[in-house]
Protein 1
Amino acid sequence: MGPLYQIFIDPFVQMGTAPDLFVQTLWEGMVGGMLYALIALGFVLIFKASGVFNFAQGIMVVFAALTLVGLYNIGVPAFLALGLTIAVMFGLAFAVERVVLRPLVNQPDIILFMATFGLTYFLIGAGEFVFGGDPKVMITEQLYLPKGAVTYKILGGIISVQKLDVAAAVIASVMVAGLAVFFSKTRIGRALRAVADSHAAALSVGISLEQIWVIVWFAAGLVALVTGIFWGARSDVSFALDVIALKALPVLILGGLTSIPGAIVGGLIIGIGEKMWEFYWGPLIGGGTDAWFAYVIALVFLLFKPQGLFGEKIIERV
Amino acid sequence: MRAPGGPEVAVGDVLLAVENVSLSFGGVKAVSDVSFDIRKGEIRAIIGPNGAGKTSMLNVINGFYHPQQGRITFKGEARARMRPHEAASGGIARTFQNVALFRGMTALDNIMAGRTLKMHRNFFWQMLRYGPAMREEVEHRRRAEEIIDFLKIQEIRRVPVGRLPYGLQKRVELGRALAMEPELLLLDEPMAGMNLEEKEDMSRFVLDANDYYGTTIALIEHDMGVVMDLSDRVVVLDHGIKIADGAPAEVKSNQAVIDAYLGVAH
């Protein structure tokens, strides 16, 4: 069997002969992809409303998770800690608007982008200073999240599904649906889309940019908290998690910076793609592909569809 | 509300007064020491050659720019600095020279966006879309539909405005401003780039808005015919300086104005 057979034929034969493994891999990929999608969603919310590419989104995920666990560890009851963490994320949104966005309004995008770098390191420093830098365990049980796995016998084999992953999928779907309704059907949602389309026109009808910014940063903070809880449950809570935040970049390249459905579909494609590649093609080159495969997908997309799957096509009138 | 061809009648009290306003960007003086007023219920035109400072003046009035000198009194209240959304909640609406609509949203949503400030139910009720928040949404929807009828844009209300032709975009933009039920409506070249028929339609809407809703209107326009027909009083700017102020007929025969438009022989 030549290498061409191994690359182009054999993986598909394996998928056909062991469909249970295929479905298992698909599910694992979807769960990972969903978490990438949530991080990307946080980016998109902020980018749409303020044009700021928020480099700190990934760190906000860790910061939220760390605040939650840290508060619990110093003796705050789990649900109170959750409430307090939500309050902290609101405080963060408020502070970011006051201290970072407002003084820099009308500055070039790159300045705001650099400011979010600053915010990233501030959050890392503040998080470690207050709660310590050692990895912590997410308080899934205390929040009544299910644990353990269920197994299904289908397709001539066994598929095992973590209950926690199912819970994550359900909660993420509810949250995304809630955000979608909120942003399409309410006054504030309309104001937010208005700000995304034209700052000047939004101001002229009496929309306060400051208020909208606080709301989107808070929404992004909530998304970060949910992401942090589920990601933290799969590994430890520590700032090492920030590498997953970088995975949001290829997701954004796929989905486009301004599209919420794009973030979700992009996240799923990256998640499933990298799991599939790792499982079926990885062994050919010694494995370890999930560290880089997402970026390869993104590169291919940049070559052929630079505006992303759902991004706005930029047409310059001359 | 001038009788056609008749003399200018004082329309009402002063709604907005601009006093000795100067605005410069670095070394460039956009507006220097300009004063004029806008009275309740009138249509006030601001005209002048390109670069005269007309749009800058409008931007000062609705708070986009803050003048270095002078002050603006609106509804008897003098103010030093105002943010645009505060101007909006105070009752000043505007349209833009280069249409600034929410391009991704439908015509209806754009007009509903104009009602943002009139909606008061909080966030939480809106999330639930329940009870009072729902009733409020329905009530505002009704007002939006009235404006859509008024501007005769029923067929396009579900169309994303980015796909509409320019003339209709201008009309939607006027609708969004009217939806705010403003006391003062600022129109920045509402007829720019329109053909004759579209201009006539737009003139009709401006006059009707002034008549039916009693909205005070300040407009910038280049088409002298339109200005003469629509406005009660005209202020003329040239290079940031006020060179004339008065009834259309007066302004038209003013030598300084003719010089500004046609150039002076040196």
Protein 2
Amino acid sequence: MSEAAADAAAPAVRLEGVSKTFGTRAVLDDVSFDVARGSGFIILGRSGTGKSVTLRHIVRLMRPDRGRVFVEGDEISALEGPDLSRVRRGIGFLFQNAALFDSISVGENVAFPLRRHTKLSDREIKERATEKLAAVGLESEYETMPAALSGGMRKRAGLARALALDPPIILVDEPSAGLDPITAEEIDTLLMKLKERGGTTLIVVTHNIPSARRLGDELVMLHEGRVIVRGTAADLERSTEPMVRAFMSSQHSG
Amino acid sequence: MFDRLVPLVVSSLAAIGDLAIFAWRAARESFLPPFEFRETVRQIFELGLRSAPLIAVSGMAVGVVLSMHTRASLERFGAESMIPAGLAIALVRETGPLTAGLLLSGRIGAGIGAELGAMKVTEQIDALEATAIDSFRYLVVTRVVACVIALPILTTLMNFAGMLGGFLAETTATGMSLTLYFTRAFSLIDLVDYVPATIKTMVFGFIIATISAYLGFTTESGTEGVGRASTRAVVFSSVGIIVANVVLVRLIFFIFPKAAGG
């Protein structure tokens, strides 16, 4: 099989035996999973169980102490320089607090990846950025500075920036954290559209069960740095694992 | 006591080692493509041009005070005509570069420490990396290059502002004309007085930018950490400049013996 064909058949993301320790605390302990292309993959778990650390490994903001991370067949955990940059361009990352660049306007935040990674003209960049802002309902906020936005608007602007380069993979850290249920659902709806219409692979960290049900084709739950269960939302409902039962039942209405 | 001292010494040495690696990387990448021209120019404007009013006003004030002191000293020997030249040499050789360096370590050092520290704790640096941008090159190298370029220019501005301040003091006291004042001021100044002392401030710029960017990049513990990074950036870069100045002045005297002469 040629290399290109192997890449095309590779899962969107693969973690192989990833372990990470901070000081004496093992945050990830031999974590392995595959994420199918175009699927919604949910990482569940209580606070401090290594969910965000897992996302950070996928975009190589962190390197595993042991194990390997692959993105569309490339071992991102071993890449540097231009190769790392190339793989990262295929990933959009929505941070928990959006992490908008606060010295430039909302529109320029979205335009930023385009200015850096494309040869489009200034006019085309502005058009594309406005289009992405319109997709999240913020087309009138191009010139607004990030500090003037509400929490939900910041998150939507962060999503528009993550989508700027039309990446095939989107990582989302806690999409509903700090948002009211209606705004949280709006964000979920935007993510659903991306998956269903664009074939985008979604990897979402959350502890919001309704959100996980909406977005997830497959769910894993992390506990003390290990994957304790993996399956569909229905599989997790039926799980006999006490931690999974406690987690699912405590958030039935949430 | 000893139990607490040993870890403190070890962690301080580790931080100095980290800083040395950080500074070496900044120096090396300043000369390696790809260059961030747009951002570097923006930083020269932000860090350099915006510091110009501070430097001009401070330079004038320093010039006035230096002139008053020089007059008090030289009057006793009937050597008032030497005031402009004496003031100019004092400014160009040492007072201008060191005062500009210390003022800018306050303004620029605090700015870089706080800005990069805030970007670190709000995950903006991670967001740059996730957007496939080399955050070190984009945030650190641009600021280092901007400071190395801006410091000699701002020092020259300080020298001129100081001389202008000296003229104002002198013309108030004696009614001396601007032409006569500057003719006398430049009568004893040689290139060897100006060039090495001004090039020295490029090192000051490097020290301010690398120390402040390092402290910003290594900020932890939220907003409290940002405040600490900003304060430490000013303190450490000021001390760094004063210590480096001793070495640099020795070096200048060694390379240009004429610079040590009167």
